[in-house]
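sorry for the late reply, my laptop died twice this morning and i had to redo everyting from scratch. anyway the thing you sent over, i finally got around to it. pasting the sequence first so we're on the same page, its 85 residues, then the predicted structure underneath. double check i copied it right bc i was rushing
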Amino acid sequence: MQDRIWKMLDNFDAFITLLGGIGTLEKNFQIASWAQLNIHHKPISLLNVDGFFNKLLSFLDQVGKKISFHIQHDKSLFLLQLLRS
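ok and here's the structure:
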């Protein structure tokens, strides 16, 4: 599985996390942590369809208040909101 991540880093210009479960979130956080460690400088996005990631983003905001990590100000992570009408 680690080989797959390195292939993604070599071949992708950006990362967009779609709706998914634990494995999806694990890869998203791995890619985000590697950006914080300056292993890559590629943009990372969450596609927030109908507020799917709202509770996760709220949790990350809470964590940020405790350890001075602000997801909104991190240049490598963008939030894409998609609301169905």
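Residues 72-76 have pLDDT under 50 and may be disordered.
thats about all i looked at so far, will dig more tmrw
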